[in-house]
Amino acid sequence: MSESFETLIVDRADGVTTVTMNRPERKNAANGTMWRELLAVFDDVATDRSARVMVLTGAGGSFCSGADLSDPSDVAGRPGDPYLVQMRALGDVALRLHRFPKPTIAKVGGIAAGAGMSLAIGCDLVVASESARFSQIFAKRGLSIDFGSSWLLPRLIGLHRAKELAFFADILSSAEAAEFGLVNRVVPDAELDTFVDGWARRLAEGPTLALSMTKTMLNNSMAVSMDQALEDEARAQATNFATHDTREALTAFIEKRSPTFEGR
Questions:
Q1: For 140-167, what is each residue's pLDDT tens digit?
Q2: What is the mean pLDDT of the chain?
Q3: What gap in Å lies between CA 213 and CA 19, rounded to an integer?
Q4: 20 to 30 A Cα–Cα from 55, which one of 43, 126, 171, 205?
Q5: % helix / strand / coil in the chain, to the nearest 5?
Q6: Spatial distance between the Cα atoms of 263 and 259, rounded to a whole number of angstroms
Q7: Which of these, 89, 52, 90, 104, lies nearest to 218 by C-alpha position?
Q8: Are 38 and 150 part of one and the same domain?
């Protein structure tokens, strides 16, 4: 099933929801409307029990070239509001993606720059085509980094490399992005859709609740002690043992067959 918004296309099939940023004439630069629609779609998919994984991508050969600054008074869809209020609204979108309770995959073809790069690396997994390019372009626009990159980059690639990307705002090839540790896989352009479809379907067939708790624990890992991490793991496993999916997995193991997970 495909749903059209003003700036997005949302497709739902077999547990996979694909959200396509759809402003190809602007290389999918995010205007205020797109930020509002992304926030609404993230909230909707997060609570949709039939949606078990979300893929974020862009139309027309680009991922997202960042925030559309052609109308600087409407950065985040709140024209007339002070810039601090608008940027906090933008931050709400980044937080929704970070807190999204299901696995997310960024499928990156073409340019992912500025907030567009932050959208990509804010996903759980990043798959890039060979022709994809990445840039923390902010400094070249007289801006500091945003959309969570000040938090994401040091955790993904370390502080010194994060400063390199942020200070110089260079454009990285997909191979360079992989060397930095920003992407999980680089695949030929012609194989991008097939590869991401394969990963998305594997995740959609997985144990939904267990994957959600694993995601939360990994996201929190740098903010907790080993003691707290072990306690969190214990609580998560106690929850898992009471689910249908874990009982199904144990039965399937005994019966020497693949489990069928139902997300409950």
A1: 999 999 999 999 999 999 999 999 999 9
A2: 94
A3: 23
A4: 171
A5: 50, 15, 30
A6: 12
A7: 104
A8: yes
Which tens digit of pLDDT belongs to each residue from 38-92? 999 999 999 999 999 999 999 999 999 999 988 766 777 677 788 888 899 999 9
Task: Supply the pTM of this predicted model.
Answer: 0.94
Cβ-Cβ contacts under 8 Å for 229 (sequence gap 6 or more): 217, 221
Residue 263 lies in a domain: no
d(CA 89, CA 14) in angstroms, rounded, equals 32
The number of folded domains in the chain is 2
Minimal CA–CA distance to 31: which of 82, 124, 93?
Answer: 93
**Angle at alpha carbon of residue 54, lines to 245 and 218, rounded to 5°:** 65
Which tokens in the block code for residue 59?
Answer: 């139309």
224 found inside a domain:
yes
Q: Are 13 and 45 in contact (CB under 8 A)?
A: no
